[in-house]
Write a structure and sequence with these properties.
It is built from six helices and seven strands, in the order βαααβββααβαββ. It is of the alpha+beta class. It has a single domain, classed as Gcn5-related N-acetyltransferase (GNAT) (Aminopeptidase), CATH 3.40.630.30. The chain has a seven-stranded mixed sheet with strand order 1-2-3-4-5-7-6. β3 and β4 form a beta hairpin. α1 runs antiparallel to α2.
C-alpha cells in the first residue's frame, strides 16, 4: 500500500471509492434514500472542489485507489482543523488502511498547527475514530441535523 497526495486525475476513482463505500458500509446504519442524497454530493467535481481547500490524500494498492482522506482548516480557523472524506473500500476495511490515513492526516501541517481537530463522523465510523482519541464534542453523543456525530481531539501546540 502507498499513500500520496491527491491529483486531479484521481477524482473519478476517489468518487467511485466513496460512493461504493457509502452504498455498502454506511447503508447498514442509514436509510438508503439518505445515502443516495449523500452520493449526489460525492461526484468527481465535488472531490476536486474539496481538494482545493484541504490536503487530500489517496491510498493505493497496486496503483488502484482503495481509500482517501483529507484535512483542512475548520471554518477557516488557524488553530482548528477538520478531518474530512475518510473512506476505505469495504473489502479493505479492517486491514490497516484507515489507520494509515489517520496517521498521515495527523502528521499533516493542518493537524500540527491545530489546538482542536474536529471530525464529522458517520454512525459507521464513530467507534473507529474514538480509538484514535477523538471524543464527542462537548460530551454530546447524539447525531446532529446532518445525521453525524461531532467528534473532536485537543492537542498542545
Amino acid at each position: 500500500m502507498n499513500i500520496r497526495k491527491f491529483e486531479l486525475a484521481d477524482a473519478e476513482a476517489v468518487s467511485s471509492v466513496i460512493i461504493k463505500t457509502i452504498r455498502i458500509s454506511n447503508a447498514k446504519d442509514y436509510p438508503s434514500e439518505l445515502m443516495e442524497e449523500l452520493v449526489k454530493s460525492q461526484q468527481p467535481q465535488n472531490i476536486i472542489e474539496r481538494a482545493s481547500w484541504t490536503h487530500f490524500y489517496v491510498v493505493e494498492d497496486d496503483n488502484i485507489i482503495i481509500g482517501c482522506g483529507s484535512i483542512g482548516p475548520f471554518w477557516g480557523k488557524e488553530d482548528e482543523s477538520g478531518l474530512f472524506t475518510i473512506f476505505v473500500l469495504p473489502e479493505y476495511q479492517g486491514k490497516g488502511v484507515g489507520r494509515l490515513i489517520i496517521e498521515t492526516l495527523e502528521k499533516d501541517e493542518y493537524f500540527l498547527r491545530a489546538k482542536r481537530i474536529e471530525i464529522p463522523s458517520s454512525i459507521t465510523a464513530c467507534q473507529f475514530y474514538r480509538k484514535f482519541g477523538y471524543d464527542y464534542k462537548n460530551g454530546v453523543a447524539e447525531l446532529d441535523d446532518e445525521h453525524l456525530y461531532r467528534l473532536e481531539k485537543f492537542r498542545e501546540v
